[in-house]
């Protein structure tokens, strides 16, 4: 369970970083 939670957190963080990169690229 802990491993799955960490995996979900890592994936969410990676997607957030991608979203930030896209926003910065557009801006």
Summarize the structure in words.
There is one protein chain. The protein has 27 residues and is mostly helical. 93% of the residues lie in helices and 0% in strands. It contains 1 helix and no strands. The longest helix is centred in the middle third of the chain and has 25 residues, at 2-26. It is rod-shaped and about 40 Å long. The model has no long low-confidence stretch (mean pLDDT 94).
SSE topology sketch:
Layout lengths: L1 H25 L1
Query: Helix- and strand-based class?
Result: mainly alpha
Fraction of residues in helix? over 70%
**First-last Cα distance:** 39 Å
Q: Quick one: how many beta strands?
A: 0
Gross morphology: rod-shaped
Helix-strand pattern = H
Q: What percentage of the residues does DSSP assign to strands (E)?
A: under 5%
- Poorly predicted regions are none
Mean residue pLDDT = 94
The largest sheet, given as strand count, sense and whether it forms a barrel, is: none
Q: Enumerate how many helices there are, as a single number.
A: 1
């Amino acid at each position: 369970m802990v491993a799955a939670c960490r995996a979900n957190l890592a994936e969410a963080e990676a997607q957030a970083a991608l979203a930030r990169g896209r926003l910065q690229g557009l801006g």
